[in-house]
């Protein structure tokens, strides 16, 4: 919109177009997903900026919320709207009421952008999220499109494609990375752009301590902080698994209702999400408990108390690879604004890792670490396809094979770079 981004984001051109519309814009996402950086690039140099992560500035507006209104009114009227960017807006929920007052006073004089990394404080305080006046935007860690593989094949057809928007002229993605590095360090923009692997590891450890612990301590009233830290480590270690409230409760000594509230806290802070079980099946022995994922595998390692590095991946790569694929599918569905992500497992252990539901179709996806996939690896996919003939006509295996392989007329094995 005004300045070229060093590396392009999929949502950059989309957001640039939407910011032209005369609404209040709410931009949410976890810390370090690049929200503030992207907005600094998209907004004009004369935009009014308020940083509520700064304790002094935050205290001033909390004590005197009327200052925000008088400062905005002091901006002289002009032909174009004044952009007013409030970073970490959840730290002063009163700002939302001030914005509503100003927006209702004049819908064209100001263009407010409120950026935040937590919905918890807003929800608990009953904050005004400006219904009928606002557009909601979410930013996520990098997708494979933004952070490409070094060896993507030209003849690939993704089961859930995500392409650069037409408005993104000559996009410049982040530097490519191999699979071991992205499984070890994840997809946060600042991490992916950093060439030094030791620095990546150190920054992720800092993220786990400074953000996941200190920020959560500030956001939530937690009586037993030690118990919460134990919960966080266990929740991260079990990321990608079926939720087991009883097991976590027993391990940490925290009651099950409190464990559930802690999981909700992680979702409110945008650092975790659930995928539901797909239960629309003729079989009667389908599990219905959801799975929980930490939003980034690099953050997952650090939060679990591990030192992010390729070595921890080589010890047991399959589960982390599966998590990475699931997170990638989830991010794409969020950006596309349609579809749902599920998994399916029977009580006797038969499982489909992911089921994408989009445009009335079901796309079953299995994830295998193998470089040499075979039809025997696809037996659960074939069962799912046979059970859902009207909605599911093709299944996929995401593997480490060198080229796409047609294992069956209904099953394709894709290299991870083709996802």
Key features of this structure:
9-stranded mixed beta sheet; single chain; alpha/beta; 5-stranded parallel beta sheet; globular; 38% helix; 419 residues; 14 strands; disordered N terminus; Rossmann fold; 2 domains
Summarize the structure.
This protein has helices spanning about 10-20, 35-40, 55-65, 65-75, 95-105, 120-125, 180-185, 190, 195-220, 225-235, 245-250, 255-270, 295-305, 310-315, 315-335, 380-385; strands at about 25-30, 50, 80-85, 110-115, 135-140, 240, 270-275, 290-295, 340-345, 350-360, 360-365, 395-400, 405-410, 410-415.
Give an account of the 3D structure.
The chain has about 425 residues and is an alpha/beta fold. The protein has two domains: about 10-140, P-loop containing nucleotide triphosphate hydrolases (Rossmann fold, 3-Layer(aba) Sandwich), CATH 3.40.50; about 180-419, no CATH class. Helices cover about 40% and strands about 20% of the residues. It contains 16 helices and 14 strands. It has helices at about 10-20, 35-40, 55-65, 65-75, 95-105, 120-125, 180-185, 190, 195-220, 225-235, 245-250, 255-270, 295-305, 310-315, 315-335, 380-385; strands spanning about 25-30, 50, 80-85, 110-115, 135-140, 240, 270-275, 290-295, 340-345, 350-360, 360-365, 395-400, 405-410, 410-415. The strands form two sheets. A nine-stranded mixed β-sheet has the order 6-8-7-9-10-11-12-14-13, sandwiched between helices. A five-stranded parallel β-sheet has the order 2-3-4-1-5, sandwiched between helices. Helix 4 packs parallel to helix 5 (about 95-105), helix 7 (about 180-185) packs across helix 13 and helix 10 packs across helix 11. The radius of gyration is 23 Å and the shape is globular. The model is unreliable at about 1-5 (pLDDT under 50).
């Amino acid at each position: 919109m005004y300045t070229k981004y060093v590396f392009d984001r999929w949502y950059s051109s989309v957001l640039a177009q939407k910011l032209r519309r005369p609404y209040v814009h709410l931009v949410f996402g976890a810390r370090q997903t690049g929200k503030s950086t992207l907005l600094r690039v998209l907004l004009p140099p004369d935009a009014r900026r308020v940083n509520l992560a700064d304790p002094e500035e935050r205290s001033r507006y909390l004590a005197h919320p009327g200052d925000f209104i008088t400062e905005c009114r002091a901006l002289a009227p002009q032909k174009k709207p004044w952009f007013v960017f409030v970073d970490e807006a959840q730290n002063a929920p009163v700002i939302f009421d001030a914005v509503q007052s100003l927006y209702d006073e004049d819908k064209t004089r100001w263009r407010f952008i409120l950026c935040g990394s937590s919905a918890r404080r807003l929800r608990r305080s009953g904050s005004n999220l400006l219904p009928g006046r606002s557009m909601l935007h979410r930013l996520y860690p990098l997708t494979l499109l933004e952070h490409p593989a070094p060896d993507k094949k030209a003849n690939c057809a993704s089961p859930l494609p995500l392409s650069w928007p037409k408005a993104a002229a000559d996009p410049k993605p982040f530097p490519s990375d191999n699979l071991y590095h992205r499984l070890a360090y994840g997809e946060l923009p600042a991490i992916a752009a950093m060439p030094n692997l030791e620095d990546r590891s150190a920054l992720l450890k800092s993220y786990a301590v400074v953000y996941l612990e200190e920020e959560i301590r500030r956001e939530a009233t937690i009586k037993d902080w030690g118990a919460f830290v134990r919960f966080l480590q266990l929740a991260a270690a079990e990321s990608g698994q079926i939720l087991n409230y009883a097991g976590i409760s027993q391990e940490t000594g925290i009651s099950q209702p409190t464990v559930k509230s802690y999981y909700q806290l992680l979702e409110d802070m945008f650092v975790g999400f659930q995928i539901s079980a797909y239960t629309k099946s003729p079989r009667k022995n389908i599990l219905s408990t959801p799975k929980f994922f930490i939003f980034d595998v690099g953050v997952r390692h650090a939060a679990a108390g591990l030192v992010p590095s390729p070595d921890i991946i080589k010890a047991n790569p399959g589960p982390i690879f599966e998590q990475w694929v699931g997170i990638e599918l989830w991010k794409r569905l969020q950006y596309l604004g349609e579809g749902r992500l599920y998994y399916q497992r029977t009580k006797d252990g038969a499982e489909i890792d992911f089921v994408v539901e989009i445009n009335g179709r079901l796309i079953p996806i299995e994830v295998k670490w193998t470089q040499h996939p075979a039809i025997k690896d696809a037996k659960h996919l074939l069962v799912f396809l046979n059970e859902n003939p009207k909605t599911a006509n093709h299944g996929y295996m995401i593997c480490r094979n060198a080229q796409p392989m047609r294992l069956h007329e209904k099953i394709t094995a894709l290299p991870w770079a083709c996802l």
